[in-house]
Design goal:
The structure holds 2 protein chains of 2 kinds.
Chain A (H helix, E strand, L loop, with lengths): L10 E6 L5 H8 L4 H7 L1 E4 L12 E7 L5 H13 E7 L1 H5 L11 H8 L23 E3 L6 H13 L10 H7 L5 H5 L15 H4 L16 H10 L4 H8 L7 H12 L1
Parallel strand pairs in A: 1-2, 1-3, 3-4, 4-5
Helix pairs in contact in A: 11-12
Chain B lengths: L4 E6 L9 E8 L2 E9 L6 H4 L8 H6 L6 H16 L5 H32 L4 H7 L1 H22 L8 E2 L2 E2 L5 H5 L2 H19 L13 E4 L10 E4 L4 E2 L4 H4 E4 L8 E4 L9 H8 L5 H9 L12 H22 L15 E9 L2 E9 L5 E7 L1 H17 L7 H13 L5 H4 L3 E7 L2
Parallel strand pairs in B: 2-14
Antiparallel strand pairs in B: 1-2, 1-14, 2-3, 4-5, 6-7, 7-8, 9-10, 11-12, 12-13
Helix pairs in contact in B: 3-4, 4-5, 4-6, 4-12, 4-14, 5-6, 6-8, 8-12, 11-12, 13-14
The chains are: A alpha/beta, B alpha+beta.
């Protein structure tokens, strides 16, 4: 975060699209690691944190947010050209985010509900993840991302090694914490079996079902979980809402929710 | 008098949450146009909240803002509890105050040290500042972490915590879990008092405005989740009357709606409003910290809001310690919240000012309509009014310095454009 030239240090840039800012804030929330991280790299572009905005190219580009405007659809192409390694962070960038709920609705009707003068608003009909627009080198999941996974990912990228970020389900994290399974023992609908780990099985540890912040695990059996939800007495509408959360447009969850619609 | 025309422009406003720009046009010493443009893409939460169950509102609306998710969760659950006619356990009420203390500590520390202080000291950012003021920045990070620890224990994680629920919490902490926070909070209380001293030693532009200040006011305490909405010009209403007194305007240059008070125009929400309207409700230790540096209401200089935030840090640390001392876990983490048709409104004090939510529910508990008015849309018109006045003082300044000063004036408000939609660009136009 400085205008001074720091030769040799990898240059990092942080870009924002449609999002809540929470994932880039994770970097500032890594209070114990922050000064070490910014000592090892050059923060070349990160408007949320600094007035200094240096021109590309950049070694690593972190992209938060989904594409929902024409301008952003063009901007992401330019961002890709400027970044050697492009990493998307969070559910908006990797799956379209909660704003992807518009993808099943009439966006013009949405605008009329929120804004008094719809003619001032220009937006796309769909909210789409970055990878639908440009090639992405790594997708870091989560709503929000896990700050330790982010630090691991940046370290691994700088070292040229594969990051240690598991793709198994939340169930594994529950077992590691010795949580009693809330779905089996208490009949609570839980997306844990089909959701990627990363949060530390937070919701089941707080007596509630997982709601899928980290998106689909590597090979999720959504059909089987849907069946299990029905046995627990969940209605089609409830199951559909469960899959249509912060990762609604991730294809495995999308198919599962559309399957409910057909029934 | 005619004179040269100059334009101040900032294409991407930095150190704010979200995306925006600024455009100011000066003719001679007169400011002829100010536009705080918010080009944050519209995500339209109020539209897709429809047909979701009320139990999902706290988790969904938290995603409006990664910096103040608890504010969204608190306004959502209180509005829905009102719609359902629920009464919460007094212990839950206390815990919600503690939850908010955590968010205020985290958010105010972020703003005071990482987003705002660099302006006063002439640094581009906190990292540059850390080179000369390492100890100050390290303390700030520890203070911020203390706020985040509170949120983590109550809500599982700092950003988008998962425990807030209609009727209470999904899970409440034990006394022991909260007591573990005490040593850090005692350290934080001392650090916050130092922050008041430190911020008061900064240099402040001479600039005072006669604001209409709007904040919650509660008979017994500095406000978080409850109270009447009052102003220094005689407003005194219940949350249910909010929309009778305030109006949202849609202006062409912004994806965020501007709020005005009907028939009265712009107003100010946030730390300055809370401090001026509720000084008598601050605990003695916070009043003393303010008095020591000569900060007394009415504070009318918006640049001094950085000291007010530090005073609120003292309050939040002291309040957190009080809650932890008094806490006895409730009989149940939450009261039952059966489906029922109804509508309810709530206003709570986000770090940046009042946040209004209204929901209408059907008999199955599904949301029929939602209305959300974040603090930054309420301050937007006021920020433009400040700049209109302030920019006229900067006519003789070199363009880059004038631009930086205008950015600093915007950051007085700690604007959260993600909330108000999301992105800020600054443009100061001055043709030669």
């Amino acid at each position: 975060m400085s205008s001074e030239k720091k030769k040799g240090r990898p240059r990092i840039a942080v870009f924002k699209f449609a999002s809540c800012d929470g994932c880039q804030l994770s970097l500032l929330d890594a209070e114990d690691e922050l000064l070490a991280v910014v000592g090892a790299v050059e923060i070349a572009y990160f408007p949320e944190a600094t007035r200094t905005m240096l021109k590309g190219p950049y070694d690593i580009g972190l992209v938060e947010g989904s594409v929902i405007t024409h301008g952003d659809a063009e901007r992401i192409q330019e961002v890709r050209r400027k970044c050697k390694t492009l990493i998307t962070i969070g559910a908006c960038a990797t799956a379209g985010g909660i704003q992807a709920l518009r993808n099943w609705k009439d966006v013009d009707e949405f605008i009329r509900v929120v804004y008094a003068s719809p003619q001032y608003i220009s937006t796309l009909k769909m909210s789409t993840p970055i990878a639908e627009h440009v090639p992405v080198d790594f997708e870091l999941r989560g709503c929000p991302i896990n700050k330790y996974q982010l630090v691991e990912l940046i370290s691994a990228t700088l070292a040229g090694r594969k990051p240690n970020i598991p793709t198994y389900s939340v169930c594994i994290e529950c077992k590691r914490k010795a949580n009693v399974c809330i779905a089996v023992a208490r009949g609570i609908a839980c997306l844990g079996p089909v959701t990627q780990a990363g949060c530390g099985a937070l919701c089941p540890s707080y007596d509630r079902g997982c709601y899928g912040c980290y998106g689909p695990m590597e090979t999720p059996n959504t059909a089987s979980l849907t069946e299990q939800f029905r046995i627990l007495g969940e209605s089609n509408e409830q199951i559909q809402r469960a899959f249509r959360g912060f990762n609604a447009w991730a294809w495995q969850f999308r198919e599962a929710s559309e399957e409910c619609q057909r029934k | 008098m005619t004179g040269t025309t100059r334009t101040i422009k900032v294409d991407t406003l930095a150190r704010v949450e979200g995306e925006g720009s600024l455009y100011i046009k000066l003719v001679g010493e007169r400011v002829t146009d100010v536009k705080l443009k918010i080009y944050e893409p519209p995500r339209m939460f109020e539209a897709f909240l429809r047909d979701r169950h009320f139990s999902e509102a706290a988790d969904i609306t938290a995603r409006i803002c990664g910096i103040c998710p608890i504010a969204y969760q608190m306004s959502a659950v209180h509005a829905i509890e009102r719609a359902l006619g629920l009464r919460i356990d007094p212990a839950v009420r206390l815990l919600r105050r503690l939850f908010y203390c955590g968010e205020w500590i985290e958010s105010h520390t972020l703003h005071v040290y990482m987003l705002h202080a660099p302006d006063f000291l002439g640094y581009a950012d906190v990292i540059e500042m850390a080179r000369d003021h390492r100890e100050v920045v390290e303390k700030a990070l520890r203070l911020k972490k203390t706020g985040n620890r509170i949120v983590q224990i109550l809500g599982g994680r700092e950003i988008h915590p998962i425990s807030a629920a209609v009727g209470g919490f999904h899970r409440v902490p034990t006394k022991q879990q909260l007591r573990e926070l005490v040593p850090d909070l005692e350290w934080a209380l001392a650090a916050a008092s130092e922050a008041v001293q430190w911020t008061s030693s900064l240099e402040f532009p001479i600039f005072e405005q006669d604001y209409e200040l709007v904040a919650l006011r509660h008979p017994d305490e500095y406000p978080f989740n409850e109270g009447r909405l009052v102003s220094n010009h005689g407003l005194n209403i219940d949350a249910a009357e909010y929309e009778d007194h305030f109006q949202e305007l849609h202006v062409k240059h912004s994806n965020a709606l501007h709020s005005i008070m009907r028939g009265r125009g712009s107003y100010l929400v946030g730390p300055l409003a809370r401090f001026n309207l509720n000084y008598d409700k601050l605990p003695a230790i916070a009043q003393e910290a303010a008095a020591k540096v000569g900060l007394q209401p009415p504070v009318k200089n918006p640049f001094r809001s950085i000291i007010v935030r530090a005073v609120e840090l003292v309050f939040a640390c002291a309040e957190a310690l009080r809650v932890i001392r008094e806490y006895e876990p409730p009989a149940a983490a939450r009261v039952e919240a059966p489906n029922r048709a109804g509508s309810g409104q709530a206003i709570t004090e986000a770090p940046r000012g009042i946040l209004y939510h209204r929901y209408a529910l059907d008999e199955n508990g599904l949301i029929l309509s939602a209305k959300i008015i974040p603090p930054t849309s309420q301050n937007q018109r006021r920020i433009e009014d400040d700049l209109r006045e302030y920019a006229s003082h900067l006519v003789a300044w070199p363009l880059d310095e004038a631009t930086w000063k205008c950015e600093q004036a915007i950051r007085n408000y700690d604007p959260c454009i993600s909330c108000a939609t999301h992105f800020l660009k600054l443009q100061i136009d001055r043709d030669a």
